[in-house]
Structure formats: C-alpha cells, structure tokens
Description:
This protein is mainly α.
Amino acid sequence: MSKLNVSILVIAVIYTVGIIGLLSPYRLYFQAATPLTLLISAGLLIWNHQEFNLRFFIFIAICLATGFFAEYLGVNFGLIFGNYQYGQTLGFQFLNVPLLIGVNWFITIYSIAVVMHRLKLPVYLSILIGALLAVGFDWLLEPVAVHYDFWSWENGIIPFKNYVGWFFVSAFLLATFVILKIKAVNPLAVSYFVIECLFFLVLNLASRLVTL
C-alpha cells in the first residue's frame, strides 16, 4: 500500500473506532485517547506533506504558539472566544490550557489551507472562505466538545463571540500560510478534513437522537 492509502486507512479506522467507542458505555476510555488521536493525525499529515523546509516548520510553530496564546487569553481573561474552561479530555494543561490545543489548531488550519488551494481562488477569497470553513468546522465541533468534556462554556451557552474569534484567528493563520509560501500539496489533507468533519457530524446527530 502507498503512504497515502496507509494514512487514510489509519485515520478512517481511528475515527470510526472513536465514534463507536464514544457512543458506548466505555466512552471515558476513548475520551482519554483524544490526545493520542490528535498526535497521530498531526504526524500523518506532516508525513504526507510534500515539501519540508524552514518555512513549513515556522508555520507549525506559529500555529502552536498562536493557538495556545489565543486559548490562554480566552480561558483566563474571557478574550477572543468568550468565557470557558477546559476539561480533562485534551490532557495535560499549562496555565489552564491543554498543551495539545495548538496541535488541534495546526491540523485544522493546515488541512483547510490545502483544501482552499485545491479551489484555485484569489488569495483574499481563499483566506476569507477558509476562515468561514473553519468557523463551520467549529460549529460542528462545539456541541461534541462540550458533551465529551473538551471544554465547557459559562452558563452552558456557546457565545457568538466564539465564532467571531475563530474567524479572525483562522484568517490570521491562513494568511500566515500564504505569506510563508507553504507548498499546499498534501494528498491526505482533504481526506482527513472530510473524515474529521464526518466524525463530528455523526456524533452531533447521535447526541440529538438520544435527546429526542
């Protein structure tokens, strides 16, 4: 099997097993595996990247730092996203923020950047639509994240401010991707983003059916 086929198979198996596990009575064990899932996803995306250079690693570093700093401001001061607190699902925390949250920002923004490159749009439209796509992804993510103790919102309400914050942070990182001239060629990225969106969509639908 090719590198791409192996990667798609691994991602598909992990997320399919994740859906089954999170909907089972043993969901706490599968929640605990979330950090490992993020690391494997990031590793496979990097493995399938087509051009390794200093700019690419600078982009990764900027995603990690920006993601962590934005979440630090949110958790500790209510800035950017609103008032929320992290649970234990995402693992070890520093300054009330999971260290792996920057990894989540990287894999999301990087995948979207590759998706937008495929569409061959003007740069400004690519950044705008890409940021809106990130907001749409967060809209799918939020109910699942709250349900499985990724994080929780003040009064249990996801504020509109959160989506505004997601738009601007995503636009900044997508613009950084463009400015650094990262080669947006990764045969896994589009498949990964689709699988990830389906993962959160299925869990959303399942949770709604349970509450009916």
